[in-house]
Amino acid sequence: MTGEIIIAPSILAADFARLGEEVAAVDTAGADWIHCDVMDGHFVPNISFGADVIKAIRPMTTKVFDVHLMIAPTDLYLEAFAKAGADVITVHAEAGPHLDRSLQAIRALGKKAGVSLCPSTPESAIEYVLDRLDLILVMTVNPGFGGQSFLDSQLEKIRRIRSMIGDRTIRLEVDGGVTRDNAAAVAAAGADTLVAGSAVFRGKSVAEYTANIEAIRVAAETGRVPKRQDKAVQPMRLGEAARTR
Ligand code: DX5
Ligand code: ZN
């Protein structure tokens, strides 16, 4: 089932010296979700921030915190991110041998469970955990840094995963190098949730952030192949009311 388009700005591209203000600004600018890139310098060759930073920015918005854990191991830290205010917690299929257990643990914490696949990881890696998932995140760059170029090779993977999802209420998220120029192709391939860092946090004002988000949203909407949407069962859309702390 393909849901309505969601735009999730990645705060990795925000001004870290004013992170709280940046979260509030991009909320005002129309972000549907806030994508939080957690990096440990082990699973990826970069270090960003941890649960304490997520806890600190939580009061700045009621929008969904879409937490992307680029860490290994993962299970030790899930509770801390859940308590810090994450709504969706996404782990990498490559981060350890027990993905099914990690996804169960996320749901046991009352959070939405996501899995992310690096560009070289085939969709078959998640074939046996589909019923543990609320979100699948396809990396269209090699994880670790913002501002990289989109890997067109991943469009076929997005199409195949859209087909794997079938009628399940699983969001299909794409992350890395997404811009107003490729958002149509991303949505046409079957994605309904688009992460964008450098393409959103361009400029410094709410007005610029608003224009950047809107340009990506419009492009994605134009790219989608109209899909029958059963109004009775909408895919997960975590709005303020539905946010779980
Ligand atoms: C990369 C992160 C992405 C990245 C997106 O490892 O997972 O979320 O920050 O930034 P852009 O949109 O600039 O590629
Ligand atoms: Zn990310």
What's the layout of helices and strands?
Layout: E1 6-9, H1 19-28, E2 33-39, H2 51-57, E3 64-70, H3 78-84, E4 88-92, H4 99-108, E5 112-117, E6 135-139, H5 154-165, E7 171-175, H6 183-188, E8 193-196, H7 206-223
Helix pairs in contact: 2-3
Bound molecules: D-xylitol-5-phosphate and zinc ion.
Please provide a written account of the structure.
It is a single chain. The protein is an alpha/beta fold. It has one domain: TIM Barrel (Alpha-Beta Barrel), CATH 3.20.20. Strands 1-8-7-6-5-4-3-2 form an 8-stranded parallel sheet. Helix 2 runs parallel beside helix 3. The chain is globular and about 45 Å long. The mean pLDDT is 93. Bound molecules: D-xylitol-5-phosphate (DX5) and zinc ion (ZN). The site of zinc ion has 6 residues, from strand 2.
